[in-house]
Amino acid sequence: MASPEGVLVLEGRPTAQLIADHLREQIIQGVFRPGQQINESVLAGQLHTSRGPVREALQRLAQEGILVSLRNRGVFVPELSIDDIKEIYAVREAVESASANILLSTGPEQIARTCRSVEVTLTEMAAQVELSDWQALTRLDMKFHTSLVEGTGNSRLIRIYDTLAAESRMCILNLRVSYPRVGALVQEHQNLLDLLAAGDSEGLKQAISRHLRKAVDDLTAITLQE
Questions:
Q1: Which pTM value belongs to this model?
Q2: Order of all β-strands in the sheet with 37-38
Q3: Across the chain, what does the average pLDDT equal?
Q4: Cβ–Cβ < 8 Å for 86, 220
Q5: Which segment, 37-51, 105-119, 129-143, is predicted with the most confidence on average?
Q6: What is the pLDDT of residues 56-91, one digit of tens each?
């Protein structure tokens, strides 16, 4: 396995969880490319640790779907197909719609707290649009949606969505695409925030569905052109 520039950022003897978190972000950012094999022994040497925690970290990421473990072949970064993209976003739509229902039933204080959180993210997104930093936009886009799910306080929904968020970022960054509708990005998210603040459950679910299905159309259209 080649040593991707920037992979050696852990010091000391990192735990399996720390290694998993580190690798997840490296994979999402495209340091490890789709189809690339992750060599346990080489990685342990790069991180100056034993193979045990590295093996456990790789197993955790394979369970999440961030890596693929192939019997007698090794562990690889997945190559996401159009069907994968459609599946990821379909599950996101289901989780986010359920989260909208739960969040809007939590009461005005929790709704207001979540609105303040996503409003901060929305302000950051607007600044990144001006800078045309689409990698930062990808991170903030998922932070916005993750905040909506976290607002439910449902630990299982949050855990499920963490993986979906990572896979969504992989769809965008690892396919080397940028937002084709970057000008509308902030407005679409502002609309989601407005509907949440207004307590419009049905309107929010419909807006989530439109937003995510447009994303699928954009991603699959670009993938077909490659």
A1: 0.82
A2: 37-38, 74-76, 68-70
A3: 87
A4: yes
A5: 105-119
A6: 999 999 998 899 999 889 999 998 889 999 999 999
Query: Residue 7 — φ and ψ, nearest 5°?
Result: -75, -25
Read off the tokens for 101. Answer: 């229902």
Q: What is the largest CA-CA distance in the chain?
A: 54
Give the pair of three-digit tokens for residue 92: 């996101």
pLDDT score for 69? 92
Q: Two tokens at 143? A: 């932070």
Which CA distances in Å does 118 have to 3, 9, 31, 143, 224?
37, 30, 28, 8, 33
Token pair listed for 141: 């886009």
